[in-house]
Amino acid sequence: MGTKNNISFAVGSKYGPRSSNWIVSISGYDVYVTTAKCKKLWKVSLHKSGRWHLKSLKEYSPTLKGPLIKTHKNDIPKGNYAVGLHIIIPDSSLRPASNPERTSVPEHWIDRPVEGGLVEISVMRWNYGGIDEEWPGQSVGTQLKFPYILCKEKMEVIGIISRHLPKAHPESININSYVDNFTNNYKPIVLDSPERRGYFCGLNKVGSIVITEYAID
């Protein structure tokens, strides 16, 4: 299990509006998530403890020690699977690349959400024998994108699961309102130049890490 496997994805398309290039790296039971532009700044990781950690890397913030955010609960339903990381890509955050031929291209593209909607992408680890559906959230419309088998004997899988939410969905309304308030009231820091992306992070009500991407105009 020492081989490192990378899965990269973005929302949108190469020549149209798009998100950052997100990278999921899997090495044994260790999972790391960041973006192509921010891999020296921060990362989210999952280890044997089963808890996700958001950490600022020493090269960027040498004075910060330890995780900035740590999950403290499994997502619902408890005991079936642990969702520790949600990546939220609102349609309003998508922008064309300044130079598509020189901008990092992911292995996989996820369809753009409808206008005013968003894509919710969850990175999770689960056991096939512990749930009643083929993948977590299947019954509520999630799509399994990139499964990776961690252990055949234990039926353990790490997977990327997505769902598209319309503009009228309560989560889309809340996220869009928060992004508007955030970008209007604070001077954003450019984290993903020249693509000009910013990210804000926190914990949801069940203790999972949520990272929302927004565009800096």
Structural account:
The chain is mainly beta and 217 residues long. The chain has one domain. 7% of the residues lie in helices and 39% in strands. The chain has one helix and 14 strands; from the N terminus they run ββββββββββββαββ. Strands 6-5-4-3-2-1-8 form a seven-stranded mixed β-sheet, with no helix packed on it. A hairpin with a 2-residue loop joins β2 (22-27) and β3 (30-35). It is globular, with a radius of gyration of 17 Å. The chain starts with a strand and ends with a strand. Residues 74-80 and 188-194 have low confidence and may be disordered.
Keywords:
217 residues; mainly beta; 7-stranded mixed beta sheet; 1 helix
Write the layout of secondary structure elements.
Blueprint: E1 4-11, E2 22-27, E3 30-35, E4 42-46, E5 52-56, E6 69-70, E7 81-90, E8 108-110, E9 118-127, E10 143-144, E11 148-151, E12 156-165, H1 170-185, E13 197-203, E14 209-215
Parallel strand pairs: 1-8, 7-14
Antiparallel strand pairs: 1-2, 2-3, 3-4, 4-5, 5-6, 7-9, 9-12, 10-12, 11-12, 13-14
What is the compact description of this entry?
With 217 residues, the protein is mainly beta. 7% of the residues lie in helices and 39% in strands.
